[in-house]
Amino acid sequence: MDVDTEQFESELAALSHALDAALERLRRLTEENASLRHGRDQMAGERAALIARNEQARTRVEAMIERLKSLEAAG
What we know:
Radius of gyration: 32 Å
Number of strands: 0
């Protein structure tokens, strides 16, 4: 093997290694992205449930206030 061939094979091996590393990083980032999206979707669902519960509580408190006002006016 001459020097040019050895240098070419060395550079090719380095490029191959760099490509493998980039592909592995892409795989990890893709998995992380999927995990973050899943977490975001779960949090959005929890947020919607909390908003609904808050609205129910507000409605009940407003109803209690109205009942107290009517009792106060009647009494």
